[in-house]
Amino acid sequence: MMGVKSLEAMQERLSCEEARRLQAVYAPQVVGVPPSNAWMDMCAMPDGEIRHYGRRDGKRVYLSSCDGGFTWKEYGVDDLHAMCSGLQSPYSGRWILSYFVEGEGGFQGAEMPVPPEGAHGWQAVLSDEGPGGAVRWVKITDKEVRCPRYPLALRSRKRILIAAQLHERPMRPIVARTDDEGETWQVSCLEGVPMHEPTWPHEGPRWQNGSCEPTIVERADGSLLMLTRTSLDFHYQYESFDGGKTWTQPVPTTILNNESKIDVISWDKDTILMAYNDTPVADWHERSPLTLAYSKDEGKTWKNLIELAAAPGAYLL
Q1: Any idea what DSSP says for residue 31?
Q2: The dihedral sign for the CA sequence 179, 181, 183, 185
Q3: pLDDT per position as a tens digit, 69-124
Q4: What is d(CA 53, CA 184) in angstroms, rounded to the nearest whole number?
Q5: Which of 21, 81, 239, 256 matches a 20 to 30 Å C-alpha distance to 125?
Q6: Rg (CA), the chain
Q7: Model's pTM, two decimal places?
Q8: What is the 8-class DSSP label of residue 105?
């Protein structure tokens, strides 16, 4: 995750030539081969360095870029107990990420430090040193989850949220919250959405994902908007007006859904940005084109800003 301070630090360390190169980019450019997807494995260091953790030939590595992503250098990781990617809290500087631990591993979507012996359930990893540093493990809940998202530090109050999906059929969102930098956690389980029925103009049955891969953004007034991937024709949304403790019932948005991930961020006090795959309903299995959209009315309506990529495979992992 690239916070405002990390982005400013990255810009400050760029040479004049590197800054000009960045300003000239208006379409995707191939700059390297990542060791994994960017679900949670990419992060920004306080000095503006971008890191991308993953594996090469079965070994943990991370790629590093100090010029805004134009060039990358690969480093091996010897200490498998150390922090990998994470979010740095704006309140204290502590780094936080979460994983579901099951046996020696679990379905993460991210590189995970070696957990303590016997650890199980949804766990938060805390580090005062950051990527490459020592960690502490704190259990969030025994509930079985999948695909935890990046932590979200709220602006309106000192609270950090992490969204995930309950591992049940159909899946539905779960939100963990902490008011003490990850030392203790409370969770809220949200309602699901209707199952998909393969009627015209649908081409046939779909994966029955329920309401999964939730992404949360904080609005200017402190309320929260959550968007989820579904097996239906549109993405669904939830709202919270108490910092993520309780949520409204799910309702469909106007955003086409094609069984792929969606991401939202607060760009400034007036604009929310969303990255998704804008595909007609009948072609839901084609995860392209990758599109950036924006909202100026707190997520009530969306306008496409730019088509980032239309090549096969150009979708959010």
Answers
A1: -
A2: positive
A3: 989 999 999 999 999 999 999 999 999 999 999 754 444 568 999 999 988 999 99
A4: 27
A5: 239
A6: 19
A7: 0.89
A8: B
